[in-house]
Structures are given as C-alpha cells and as structure tokens.
Design brief:
The protein is mainly α. It has 20 helices and 14 strands. The strands form six sheets. It has a three-stranded parallel β-sheet with strand order 1-2-3. It has a three-stranded antiparallel β-sheet with strand order 4-5-8. A two-stranded antiparallel ribbon has the order 6-7. Strand 9, helix 8 and strand 10 form a beta-alpha-beta unit. The longest helix has 19 residues. It is elongated. The chain binds glutamic acid. Glutamic acid (GLU) binds next to helix 7 and strand 9.
C-alpha cells in the first residue's frame, strides 16, 4: 500500500435519498483527515444505479455540506478540479468503466456471463434444494452456467457479435488468501472462496459500484478510502480487482468507520429511534413515500454543535476535550483514534452540545437569531433590548427558540398569573405590601439590577419579608425564571409599574 501519495480523499454518496447524519459523519471524517494533511477533499456523486436515483438528493447533499461547513475543494457543486467530471453517470460516457472491465477480462480477472434471469433463478433454486446456505455465483457454480469460462471462444464471440445481453463478472479465485490492512481495524484476512463473482458491468453497460468506485479512485488519485462499515464485507473483492490490475501496492489505504448505533446500543441507528431528534441535517421530503423529515438546521441546531457531536461519534481526541472547534478537530484528528466498536447516538448529549455553543455566543449574535422568531410573532423591539433578554435567558436555553419560549414575558405583558402562587399569596395584606414594594422600586435610581438587589435586601431587613415570588408572578405571569432583579432592570421601572398595576386590576376584578 502506498503511504507517500498526496492525501486525496473523497466523499462518494449515491443520490438515492436524503443524506442522513451517518453520511455527514463520513464526509466530516474525510474532511478532517484531508485538512489535517493539507490534502484534497473531493465530492463524487455515485449515480450509476439510475433505478434508485432520487431527484433533489444531489442538491441536498451539496447544501448539507455547505451548512455543516465541510466543503469539498473539488467535485460536484464545488467547482471542478483536474479530474472532472465527478458524476459517475457523466464519467460513464467517456467509456472509462468499460475499458477497465475489458482490461480485467484480458488479464483473466473477469469474464462475460450470458445467463438470463430465469437461468439465474434456476441456479438459486437448485442450490437451495441442495441445502447450500448462501447460494452464490462463484468459483464452483459458475462452471455450470453460460459464461466465457464454460463456452468456447467461438461461441462467446458469436454471442457478443449478435448482441446477446451479458454482464461482466469478477473471476474470484478458489482458496486464495486476501489480506488487507484497515487503519481502524488492523489486518483483515479473508479466504477468496467465501466471495462471490460480483457483477462489474451490467447488461445496460452501466458499471456497478464495485467497479466504478475503484476506477474512479484510481483515476482521481485517491490516497485513502474512508467510508462506513457496511462496505467492509465487499472490500476483499475490491482488493482482488486492484490485484488483477497490478495495482494492489498502490491501492488507497482503507478505513472503515464504525456504525452509529441506536441510543440503547441495540442495532444500527434508524429514522425511528433518534428519540425525537432529526436524522437529517436539513429538512428532507421523501418524494417516494411522501414523508417529511425535519432537519437539525430547522430544529435550531448550530452547525458547529452538530459537527462537534458527530465528530465524537466514534472518534475521541484523546484528551477528554468535548467542545472542539473545527480547527481543533483538524489539529487533533487521526484515523488511528477512531474506534472500531459502534458508537451510540446520545440525544441528550446532542442537545447539550447545542447548549454549550449557545452559551458561548455573544448576546448580539443571539439577538440576530432571535429577531426573526420575534418577527414571526409580530414583535418588533430594538436589538439592544433583545440582546439583553438573550443574555438573561441563555443559561437555561438549548436553542434560540427556547429563549423566546421561556422569555415570552419579556416581550409580551402577561394576561394570566400562576394560579398556585396567586391562591397562596394574593392576600389583602400582601396587596398593600406589593404597593410598598413598588414605591421602593420607584425610588431605586438608577434602576439597575445591583441597586434593586440592595433595595430588596434593605427592605427585607426592615419588614422581615419580601414576597419575591408574588412580585415575580405579577410582573411575568410565572413563578420562576432568571434573577428577578435582572428581569426588572431590563423591563425598566415604567413597565414594571404598569404590569403590577394591571395585574392588581385583573386580580381584583376576578375576586369581586
Ligand atoms: N456510493 C457509496 C455509498 O453510497 C460509496 C461507498 C464508498 O465510499 O466507497 O455509500
């Protein structure tokens, strides 16, 4: 295996649906690895299976990578580099895949197979009847089928000339050791007898994934293949193809990432078990099923928090650090520190990441994000005021929308008041007490949280009590929240007075 090549890695999704978070993690690890080694990160679209092509999927992939800030420097949607085109359907037009398939035939690594669907079905039935556990087209069964290994050269030529449909299959040898190194998993040894003769070129002339990705990895000078664990079982067949092409020593180094597991660790994460969190980075509408899925972006996640969470699904920087900027991730990233065991998705932790990033944001940045939510609710306030509310509320919020949910009363006068508190505290004695408190606040100048706090302390000493909760309820409608002195300062005395007076009016009218 070549270890000195310039680092060139690729993310090679098939546009068969919405790119889910597992795919984004694969892209992210490729990105981090490329940046760490000053290499290239390429986006290649593997769209050879036209029957599974989903409209919009390609744009979705591009937009998702952009939102996550993990942009390829070469490839579909990001500016062509020296190896264009980057879409396999377009590459096919150049005849490149067929040329490689024919080369494989030439060197005895592949063969033509003319079997019809019915013949293949018959073979499966025969093998099943003979109690073969996994019926395969392989080094044994191929000898009973119609292919260029069993037919004479003349017969084969005639069939090719007369246009009989055929596929090209990989000729897997019997009982040969296939050894390859995976950076994450170490040495892997497989006996070739367990591998089937995979189709490389279909009867419509389209290459399968197995052939196409190898041709492209060679042509695009890919140095490392970093992809999901689901591709590990077919890797031995891929090694064979490189071997037949005389390129085994130059083949890219492999790294198969661990699965992302359900929160309980039992099985692969799917759309149904994310505990209410999205599976997709952005909103996704599946045209085939008519189902819509909400994205991380639309749920209020910051892209930095999303990729930070994803980076730690299967990798750790080795220093217990959990909050990592993209630059830190690049600095610390290494494939050797990626685990091979599946990584459990943790919904609570995912929200925690967002909370950490929210807390780090400047109040004006948060205000920018909150203003559109306020506008949707027909609230127009100046940015300084919004920023103050953000500063006050951000400690308890996971998302910017939580600031609105928790702090509505900072923008809208309450019209109802926590009933429990009112029942317990709204006594005749406390009614005049509240008026005294209001007088106290009126004299508190300047009306700052600090001064309000001192005034409250002094008042408590003199009177023996204060009734914070009642005051809070009259001003905000609810009985808990951030520091009352801070709330009062931001609202300003005028508004506080107005709210208390209105509350008294409402409560008295309800009582009478
Ligand atoms: N097209 C494959 C996929 O959809 C890519 C696998 C690979 O990276 O080799 O996942």
């Amino acid at each position: 295996m070549n270890t000195e090549k310039r680092v060139r890695v690729r993310f090679a999704p098939s546009p068969t649906g919405g790119l889910h978070m597992g795919g984004v993690r694969t892209a992210l690890f490729n990105y981090l690895f490329a940046k760490k080694h000053n290499g290239d990160f390429i986006l290649r679209i593997e769209d050879t299976d036209q029957s599974r092509y989903v409209k919009g999927a390609e744009d979705y992939i591009i937009e998702s990578l952009k939102w996550c800030g993990i942009e390829p420097n070469e490839g579909v949607g990001f500016g062509d580099g020296p190896y264009a085109p980057y879409r396999q359907s377009e590459r096919k037009e150049t005849g490149i895949y067929r040329r490689y398939a024919e080369k494989l035939i030439e060197v005895g690594g592949a063969y033509y197979a003319f079997d019809t669907e019915e013949e293949l079905e018959e073979m499966r039935k025969r093998l099943e009847a003979a109690k073969v556990v996994s019926p395969q087209y392989n080094h044994i069964t191929r000898m009973n089928m119609r292919n260029s290994l069993t037919l004479s050269a003349d017969e084969v030529q005639k069939m090719l000339d007369s246009g009989v449909p055929y596929v090209i299959r990989l000729k897997v040898p019997r009982n040969e050791e296939i050894r390859f190194y995976d950076i994450i998993r170490g040495w892997i040894v497989v006996n070739s007898s367990t591998i089937d003769d995979k189709v490389l070129l279909k009867s419509d002339g389209m290459p399968t994934y197995h052939l196409a990705h190898i041709v492209d990895d060679i042509e695009m000078k890919i140095s490392h293949v970093i992809r999901g664990e689901e591709w590990l079982p077919s890797a031995p067949a891929h090694v064979l193809i490189y071997r037949y092409l005389g390129l085994e020593k130059e083949m890219p180094q492999l790294a198969h990432l661990p699965l992302i597991l359900k929160p309980d660790g039992k099985g692969k994460l799917s759309k149904r078990d994310t505990s209410g969190l999205p599976m997709f980075p952005l909103n996704w509408y599946d045209e085939r099923t008519g189902e819509s899925y909400i994205g991380y972006r639309e749920s209020g996640f910051f892209p930095e928090a999303f990729i930070n969470m994803l980076a730690l699904l299967g990798w750790n920087p080795g220093n217990n650090q959990e909050i990592l900027s993209k630059e830190e991730m690049i600095q610390l990233f290494s494939l050797e520190k990626v685990h091979k065991a599946g990584a459990k998705f943790d919904p609570e932790k995912t929200k925690w990441f967002n909370q950490q990033y929210l807390r780090k944001k400047d109040k004006y940045e948060l205000a920018e994000l909150l203003i559109p939510i306020l506008k949707e609710n027909n609230i127009e306030v100046d940015k300084d005021y919004v920023a103050q509310v953000c500063e006050l509320m951000k400690e308890k919020a996971y998302f910017v929308k939580d600031i609105w949910e928790m702090g509505k009363y900072m923008f809208i006068e309450p019209s109802s008041y926590d009933e429990k508190i009112i029942q317990k505290k709204w006594t005749t004695e406390n009614q005049s007490f509240i008026l005294e408190l209001l007088n106290l606040l009126k004299e508190t100048k300047p009306f700052t949280a600090e001064n309000i706090h001192h005034a409250f302390e002094k008042f408590t000493k003199e009177k023996g009590k204060i009734e914070y909760q009642l005051l809070r309820t009259l001003v905000t409608g609810v009985s808990s929240g951030p520091s009352l002195a801070n709330i009062l300062e931001i609202l300003g005395f005028e508004r506080v007075q107005q709210r208390v007076q209105k509350a008294i009016q409402i409560l008295l009218s309800v009582k009478s």
